[in-house]
Structures are given as structure tokens and as C-alpha cells.
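Teaching assistant's notes for section 4

Start the section by putting this record on the projector. Ask students to predict, before seeing the second block, whether CoA-binding domain-containing protein will look compact or extended. Collect guesses on the board.
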Amino acid sequence: MPLIDENDGLRALLRRTQSVAVVGVSDNPRRPSHTVTRYLIDHTEWTLWFVNPTVDELFGRPVYPSLDALPEVPDMVDVFRRTEHLAGVVDESIAIGATSVWFQLGLVNDVAATRAVHAGLDVVQDRCLEIEFARLIRR
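Reveal the predicted structure now:
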């Protein structure tokens, strides 16, 4: 499984994804994680899971404290956490059996990304899931 950074690879990953866990989702409407999540609800057919230990509910759906608390394993883990937390999220993603991790805009951690790739996950760094979905799939 590769580090994905070109259009064909991104498009293929987005097309095969059926479920996404949004880690670090915020209930603050000014935060990017909030607006991206709203977009994903409105424009994708994905099953969405929300992860944040400080929020109980968002958009009328439960928010889980961790990836291992989710009722099922997501295909993709979309990460809105600071760079220093990416390695931990990657470890959790590997442990639960996710197949890809997506680090949002501004988030790069080559060590964590390499660990994910070596564990068989597809990895995207420093890209917005909303922007790429709109650009490559929704048109």
C-alpha cells in the first residue's frame, strides 16, 4: 500500500472508500473539521463515524471517544489532530484494521506515514478530504 499523492491514486482511494472515521471532529462550526464533516454528510454516501473524547453528539449522531470504541471498523481514518498526535492515531488505525489514513491540510508526519504504509495502509498527507472529493469525484 502506498503513500498516495497523485490524482489517479486519490480518485481510486475515494471510490473504494465506504466508511470514514473523522478523528478530531469539532462541534465548533468555525473549525475546519466541522465544515468538512458537514460536507461529507451532505455530499457522500459514506458511513461516517465521529471521534472526539470531548464531544458527545454532533449533527444528531454519536461521537465516540476513540477509534476502538467505534461500532465497526472504518475504511478510512480522516485526521484533524495536531502533527504530534498523528503517530498515535496511526497506531490506533493499524490496531483496529482501517485500510487508509488521511492527514488533513497542513498535517505531515513522514515517520507515522511510513509506519502506516509498512502496516499495509494507504496514506494521504497534507490534503483536504472535502476538496479532493469535490475535485475528483463530485465534479
